[in-house]
Amino acid sequence: MKKDYEITDKKNKAGRVRINDEQYFDNVPKIAWEFYIGGYQPARKWLRDRKRRELNFDDILHYQKIIKALTETDRIMQEIDKIDFM
Fold it and tell me: Which residues form the Type ISP restriction-modification enzyme LLaBIII C-terminal specificity domain (predicted)?
């Protein structure tokens, strides 16, 4: 029997990252889902590293913070790219 928040799948469709048949993280920006750092995609890797485990409340909050941090990192990088250094 599946436990609540047990990760079995992790596909992003229309901003949803499914963690099992009934539960998912909603409104996950595509940029956060596809963001690379050093050859890894942290949003995917974090879930993959926890596959077949049960997520507790703190895990869920942590994942939400990861998504927010990746989204903000992309936004800041875009702002830096606009700076004219010449």
Answer: 9-79
